[in-house]
């Protein structure tokens, strides 16, 4: 069983070095609540290799709070 956190993480890593916003993560993974995606990205942002910042989302093009996996 794949957890939501693993799905969010895999999605962000797949998009690297592009950034993605919480809304697009929620839509892509079919999460019912945007808050759920928001919580996951905040947890991931505290981990090494991920960064959360204001930038253009690669999916919807809106400049807002996004997360990305830093390229090595
Ligand atoms: Zn977006």
Q: Mind explaining what this structure looks like?
A:
This protein has 72 residues and is an alpha+beta fold. It has a single domain (4-69), classed as Arc Repressor Mutant, subunit A (Orthogonal Bundle), CATH 1.10.10. It is 44% helix and 22% strand. The protein is built from three helices and three strands; from the N terminus they run H-E-H-H-E-E. A three-stranded antiparallel β-sheet has the order 1-3-2. Helix 1 crosses helix 3 and helix 2 (22-29) crosses helix 3 (34-45). It is globular and about 30 Å long. The N and C termini lie far apart (29 Å). It binds zinc ion.
Summarize this, please?
The protein has 72 residues and is α+β, with helices and mostly antiparallel strands.
Count of individual domains:
1
Oligomeric form of this entry? single chain
Q: What is the string of helix and strand elements?
A: HEHHEE
Number of strands: 3
CATH topology: the name is Arc Repressor Mutant, subunit A
Sketch the major β-sheet.
3 strands, antiparallel
| Computed Rg | 11 Å
Bulk shape: globular
| Total number of helices | 3
Helix proportion range = 40-55%
Bound molecules: zinc ion
Mean residue pLDDT = 91
User: Which class in CATH terms?
Assistant: Mainly Alpha
Strand content: 15-25%
Distance between the termini: 29 Å
Which SSEs are present, and which pair or pack?
Elements: H1 4-15, E1 20-21, H2 22-29, H3 34-45, E2 50-56, E3 63-69
Antiparallel strand pairs: 1-3, 2-3
Helix pairs in contact: 1-3, 2-3
């Amino acid at each position: 069983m794949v957890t939501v956190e693993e799905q969010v993480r895999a999605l962000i890593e797949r998009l690297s070095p592009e950034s993605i916003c919480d809304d697009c993560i929620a839509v892509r993974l079919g999460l019912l609540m945007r808050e759920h995606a928001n919580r996951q990205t905040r947890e991931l942002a505290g981990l090494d290799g991920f960064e959360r910042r204001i930038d253009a989302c690669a999916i919807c093009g809106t400049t807002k709070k996004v997360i990305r996996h830093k390229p090595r």
